[in-house]
Amino acid sequence: MFAYKKCLPVSCIKLAGLLMIALPLAAFAETAEEISRINEDVAVLSAKLAKAEVKAKIAAKNQEISKLNSSEKKPDEVMPVVAAIEGADGRLIATLITENGARLAVVKGDKVGKWKVAKIDVNSVKLKRGKQTVDLGFGNIPPKPATPNPGAPQAL
Predict the structure, then answer these.
(1) CA 68 to CA 56: how far, in whole Å?
(2) How far is CA 93 from CA 53, 57, 82, 96, 152, in A?
(3) Digit-coded pLDDT (tens) for 69-79
């Protein structure tokens, strides 16, 4: 009679053994692909995080620069220019020209807007407000509103 062992060819047994090995390899390949995708996602997210951190640093630096620039005279605060300094025996009078073209004759102690005339000598007029002092420049035309100082830090 037939023996069951002869019914199953040897190749079928080998095929079954190969399938038992191949199934875990296929699962391993899927896992490797998933790990690769995850690594790519992590790399993209890390790059986005680094970009966000750099943007935050730039914003913080711009804010710092803005504070530095605002501690200087305000852009809407236009300082007068000195048209002339006259006098004798230490009694000097300075003629200032304001933004609107008005001429003011001032002596030490007079007020010019929010500023006080702190010193007048033959070559300069110094205004003071609190701890801040400003040396006025000479000119014969009214001053224009301040433009940003090229030497001052600018926003990024």
Answers:
(1) 19
(2) 57, 51, 11, 10, 33
(3) 765 555 557 88
